[in-house]
Structures are given as structure tokens and as C-alpha cells.
Amino acid sequence: MTHVLDDLDARGLIAHSTDRDALRAELSAGPITYYVGFDPTAPSLHIGNLLQILTARRLQLAGHRPLLLVGGSTGLIGDPKEAGERIMNTKETVAEWVDRIASQVSRFVDVDGPTGAALVNNLDWTAGLSTIDFLRDIGKHFPVNRMLARDVVSSRLESGISYTEFSYVLLQSMDYLELHRRHGCVLQTGGSDQWGNITAGVELIRRADAHKVHALATPLITKADGTKFGKTESGTVWLDPELTSPYAFYQSWIQAEDSKVAEYLRQFTFLPLEEIAALEAEHAEKPGLRLAQRRLAAEVTTLVHGADEAAAAELAAGALFGRGELTDLPEQTLAAALREAGAAELSAADRPTIVDALVASGLTDSKSAARRAVADGGAYVNNVRASDPDQVLEGDLLLYSTWAVIRKGKRSVSGVRIS
Fold first, then answer.
1. What is the pLDDT of residues 379-407, one digit of tens each?
2. CATH 3.40.50.300 for the 342-418 domain, yes or no
3. CATH of domain 4-218
4. What residues are designated binding site for ATP?
5. Burial annotation 330-341 (CB, 10 A radius, 16+ → b, else e)
6. Annotated binding residues for L-tyrosine
7. What's the rounded Cα separation, in Å, for the pair 224 and 263?
């Protein structure tokens, strides 16, 4: 059986690690307890957080016990950013987001059995902690010169950084110490952008309790041009279906670049590496079919939103481009797909025509261009070629009495909502 570290390595999931041999020995000796943390600085987690959740799941499948920390106290401050001070949210908002994120992360791990996951909140050990005790018991272990040398701090020294954000590393390090003492936690995982905070916790445990613990960081997931993966033209790709619809979520994976799709398959799915290699070879032979992207989108959407939503998103993706029946789509899925495609709003009182829809949806830049598209046979309404540019969008031309899918050529799709 493949050792979990070897599997993580083969999937490209290890960017940094403390003593690799010592960690391997600890993982091999028997079940360990490990943790990964999430700060509620937004109402939902996003694709970057998903990588951490799935890494925690891989370790659990290998027989180890996860602690999923949602930072009720660290979320009140926020990890320092290079761009400037974070906006502090109210305590009530953070508490609400703690509950939402705790619900999200718990769906990806098993909570029963000897390796059942536990949800923890760092507000439990900070709420009653006095400033004096914090400075005496935690602060004394942190040399200021080393804190100043941290990249995110040094980059902010000229523009300014508050003592609140400067002290964030102490709070996150204390989380590791508390979980080590309370639960026997000996490994923290996280993203490579958290490596400084994670290793600070390792050092705090060494200084405070004279114990050796471990750390492991996953790489930053990027696009081919080096920019962060998980951002689209419409913004961050969230795990919450209210913030990013399952269709939009599915589309974010379908659009994966050819040069990166195999990497994403290894990192974000539980497919065997041999199967991924076969998909990669098949994709290299027939890239136009985008089989690897379609499998990636189906697998990750199923993980996050369930098999039914993944199937609906796949059906919608095909139907919008004429490869399926639009009438088979639930209205909610159709609406989400058209909004993602940039659907325009038109008033029924204005009796909008096909020409109006082509212009409003942005598929043509003028009414004359819209008329040419219809005359050339390149305009479609609900996947039916349009012949009359002045036909009013009403009655049978509307899906669910509201929507019309507008297409120009084979690839340019949008829509309108008639209200």
C-alpha cells in the first residue's frame, strides 16, 4: 500500500515539510492527530480552501484523525495581507460565518469512528485569556527580530502594519500549542502562504513544552501564467452554492488550461494516479474533446455539490451549445447558467425582438450586426436557427415564460430574461 506521504508527493501536494523522515516515521507508527485551520473572513470557503480540506481528507483515509479548526478569534483579526490592513468584521458577523464554515468543512470528512474528525474553535481558549497571561505565556517565546523578518511583515513596514495584525502569528501558533496539549495533535497542514505561521507554531511547542511536532504545506495553485487559480471574470469561486452556483462552479473547472488540467486532477480529485495518467494521454491525443476537463469538472463538482448538481451542470453546459434539450433543464439550473453567461434583462412591455436580444446580451455590438447574423444563419434562439430578426420574444420562444437562450455561431452563448 502506498504511504500517504508518497501519495501526497506524487500528486504534487507537498511544497514544504519539516523533517520528512521523522514525519514519515510518525505517520507509519500509528494513527496521529493533525489539524488544519480556516479563518472566517468571508461567509464561505473557496477553491483554495478546498485543497486544504481534501488534503485533510486524504490523511484521514490513510487512518489519521483530523481536527478542523474554524477561527472564531483569529477571524476577528485576520492574517496580515501584503496589500494593507484587513477590514475588521463585527463579532456577530464572524460568529455567523464560523457556523457556516464549520458546516461546510464537516461535509468532507467522516465524523464517526476512532479517526472521526472534530470541529474546534480557537475562541474557546482565547475568550477568557487575560492580556497579561497571553504576554507571559505566549509572547515571551517570540523574538521580535524574527517576527519583523517575516515576509508579510517586512513588506508592510514602510506602509505600516498595526500591532493587531503583527500579533496574528502568536494567536495561530497558540492554536497549535493548545491542540497539541488538548488533543495530542502533532501535525499542522496548510497552504504554503501560511508556512511562516505554521512553523512558528512548531517552534512555540518546542520552546514551551520541549516537544517535537510536524508541519506540512501544500503549494499555491496557479494558472499557467502564474496567477492564482480560483478566480474568474466574475470573481472568487466559492464553495457556497448561494455565492457561486453549481453551474458556475462546474464551468470554472471546465475552463482549466490544457497544460494544468492533469495537475488539478491529481490535486483536487481522488482518482487513482494511473487513471489520471490515462486521461492525460487521451487528452494529449484529442485535446479538442476536453475529456480531462470534463472529468475534472464532474469529479470536483460532485465532491462539493453532489452528483445530482454535477449532472445538472453538465447537462446545462451541453444544452446551451445545442448538444442537449434545454427543456430538460430545471429552471434554477437554466437561470444560473444564463446568468453566468451574462444574460441581459429586458422588459416584456417593450416587446423585445431577436435583434434586441442579440445586442442586449452583448453577442453583437449593433442592431445592424445582429440583423446580419440572422441573415447569415448564425443566430439561434433556444438552439433553433432564427430567421426573422424582428420576431418578438414571447410565448413559446420563452423557457419557463421568462428565459431565452441566445447564441451566435457555435461558441458564443448568452441569454435574456424577459420580465
1. 999 989 999 989 999 988 899 999 989 98
2. no
3. 3.40.50.620
4. 231
5. eeebbbbbbebb
6. 35, 168, 172
7. 11
